[in-house]
Specification:
- The protein has helices at about 10-15, 20-30, 160-180, 180-190, 200-205, 290-295, 335-355, 360-365, 405-410, 485-495, 505-520; strands at about 55-70, 75-85, 90-100, 115-125, 125-130, 140-145, 150, 210, 225-235, 245-250, 280-285, 305-315, 315-330, 390-395, 415-425, 435, 440-445, 455, 460-465, 465-475, 480-485, 525-535, 540-545, 550.
- Helices cover about 20% and strands about 35% of the residues.
- It starts with 8 loop residues before the first helix and ends with a strand.
- The strands form five sheets. Strands 15, 16, 17, 20, 21, 22 and 23 form a seven-stranded antiparallel β-sheet that branches. Strands 1-2-3-5-4 form a five-stranded mixed beta barrel. A five-stranded mixed β-barrel has the order 9-10-11-13-12.
- By secondary structure, it is an alpha+beta fold.
- It has three domains: about 10-180, Nucleic acid-binding proteins (OB fold (Dihydrolipoamide Acetyltransferase, E2P), Beta Barrel), CATH 2.40.50; about 210-380, OB fold (Dihydrolipoamide Acetyltransferase, E2P) (Beta Barrel); about 390-550, Nucleic acid-binding proteins (OB fold (Dihydrolipoamide Acetyltransferase, E2P), Beta Barrel), CATH 2.40.50.140.
- The chain is globular and about 80 Å long.
- The structure holds zinc ion (ZN).
- Zinc ion binds near residues 437, 439, 456 and 459.
Length: about 550
């Protein structure tokens, strides 16, 4: 019998200290839970189906916990847990904020069932992240894995028969996972020298990612492991929470093969032209790994094993991304995997030399083989993606803020951002404008029609005016966000193009189409200004583009 996956030991230790408050809380809230007869009004969303920027009700199994600690901003305490369900077995991070440590949901052990109402879904570094805060009236229910005792954070929590069914099915799923954990055992045995432990659950449910050479990195969004030599290490770039280190790495692959030019379907964010082989760029987001570079544990020339690497597209080039789930293991030059890569590299160099024209001794004298040592190429050979902008702002002096930073601020502000426009809403450009009642100063919920006028649903007047209302999905290297194009801000985005009924005005529609084609061109960026504001009605943060014009 194998147990369901356990969290890293440091987590268990941290949580054990908090058991006192948990016991107290369980006894405090145990009594009010009554099994109601009626079915619940709550619709629960599978974790995979969560939409960024919404508030949702979720159910899942806790796979890892970090004990509450003082939050970096503000006076609150924050507890972080990883929640998984059958739709999202790798799990998502959820931050729970409470003003007082004793108020946290009574989570003690991986395998506890966790239910949250009104959890806000955010985007953190391209991944789903949940936010539970009393500001958004969240409420949680926890069913202890070992004692089965339910506990709640609010006395108004409901508990109906359907809850029992959900809890039972999640339990069965989780216990089934534990039986498949033979892979976990082998991983744990090799884990002692890693700097950061990955969430063990993620390993049991996902297949082990393939180890690739740089020459085999040919497509985006592939999880892989790479053994390579660090050639260059940048300073820490950017400000929290988007700090990162840029590495250049080399593994000896990608030298010209004996016949013809080596080609890849997608240009790589490194130089494939060199006879020394590929040089790849690794963007390291995992702050836990920064110290190994800053304290000199890993310096240029060191061979490393990178785990949890994801290939990413940036401006039409491929690069390698290391996030909070990634690991870095320094390797000795005597490691047999390193020796194999170097041997293969030397063999390729010999073949290249044999093929070289004998009349050109100067060229062969320059080759690495003649110097009898493996010289990694210089970082100067890295090809940086070219940034082409299709918009301009009137605020050239404003600093650039990353999308992840903008989303994390959660306060009223103005930002300048460089990003790619991924898509837009509505998908039908004819719906980019809406009727606007000048009397009520409100845009109508109705759409324009080809013939006939629209009457204002508030005052009944015939509406003759129109406003721009649409959304753009932006992406930079830190994440995605939706920005709204509205009223005069959208008019100036389109270079003064006045809004009108686009079902009637083909001229405006054609001009709009041209402008949008410009925005959506491949490998171009927008330089734009974004303001953030909180909607009164839904208590959600919204972002609007302003003072930005398509060139
Ligand atoms: Zn009106």
């Amino acid at each position: 019998m194998s147990d369901p996956p356990q969290p890293a030991k440091r987590h268990l230790g941290d949580v054990a200290q908090d058991n006192e408050h948990v016991k107290k809380q369980r006894s405090e809230y145990h009594a009010p839970i009554q099994l109601a007869r009626e079915s619940s009004d709550y619709q629960y969303t599978a974790l995979r189906d969560l939409q960024i920027g919404t508030s949702a009700h979720v159910y899942g199994v806790v796979s890892a916990i970090q004990a509450p600690k003082k939050s970096i901003r503000g006076q609150d305490y924050v507890m972080t847990l990883t929640l998984c369900d059958p739709s999202y077995p790798g799990g998502m991070l959820i931050n729970i904020f409470e003003p007082d440590e004793s108020k946290f949901p009574a989570i003690t052990s991986p395998g506890d069932i966790f239910r949250a109402h009104r959890m806000v879904v955010n985007n953190y570094n391209g991944k789903l992240q949940g936010l539970c805060s009393r500001k958004f009236r969240y409420a949680a229910l926890v069913i202890g894995r070992y004692d089965g005792i339910p506990s709640i954070t609010s006395e108004r929590c409901t508990f109906v028969e359907e809850d029992l069914e959900r809890i039972q099915s999640l339990k069965l799923w989780w216990e089934g996972l534990g039986k498949k954990s033979s892979y976990l055992q082998t991983v744990k045995a090799n884990e002692s020298d890693t700097f950061v432990n990955r969430n063990p659950v993620e390993r049991t449910v996902n297949q082990a990612p393939a180890r690739l050479t740089l020459g085999e990195v040919v497509e985006p969004d592939v999880d892989c492991e790479i053994i390579c030599q660090v050639v260059h290490i940048s300073e820490v770039i950017g400000n929290a929470p988007t700090q990162r280190i840029k590495l250049s790495v080399w593994d000896g692959t990608g030298t010209k093969p004996t016949s013809g030019q080596l080609t890849t379907p997608i240009p790589l964010h490194y130089s494939p032209a060199s006879p020394f082989g590929f040089l790849a760029v690794v963007i390291l987001w995992n702050e836990a790994l920064f110290p190994v570079f800053l304290d000199g544990s890993v310096t240029a020339g060191r061979w490393v094993h990178l785990k949890g690497v994801q290939t990413k597209m940036y401006l039409g080039c491929l690069e390698l991304k290391m996030s909070s789930q990634s690991e870095l293991l320094p390797l000795e030059p005597t490691d047999e995997r390193v020796e194999k890569l170097i041997d293969e590299y030397k063999t390729r160099c010999e073949i290249l030399l044999e093929e070289a024209e004998p009349a050109e001794p100067v060229q062969s004298a320059k080759s690495p083989q003649s110097t009898k040592s493996v010289q990694p190429p210089q970082p100067a050979q890295i090809v940086e993606p070219e940034e082409v902008f299709v918009t301009t702002t009137t605020h050239d002096d404003m600093p650039i803020t990353s999308i992840r930073e903008i989303l994390s601020h959660q306060r009223v502000g103005k930002y300048r951002c460089k990003a790619k426009v991924l898509s837009y809403l509505p998908r039908d450009l004819k719906k980019f404008t809406k009727p606007f009642c000048t009397k009520c100063q409100k845009s109508s919920g109705q759409l324009f029609t080809e013939e006939g006028d629209v009457n204002c649903e508030h005052c009944g007047d015939i509406i003759s005016e129109a406003v721009w209302v649409f959304q753009l999905k932006l992406r930079d290297e830190t994440g995605d966000m939706m920005v709204i194009g509205y009223k005069h801000n959208a008019t100036s985005l389109f270079h003064g193009l006045p809004p009108s009924n686009l079902r009637k005005s083909n001229v405006t529609l054609d001009l709009l189409k041209k402008k949008m084609d410009q925005l959506m061109r491949e490998n171009v960026l927008v330089d734009c200004c974004i303001s953030s504001y909180l909607t009164e009605k839904y208590l959600k943060w919204r972002y609007q583009i302003f003072d930005t014009t398509i060139l």
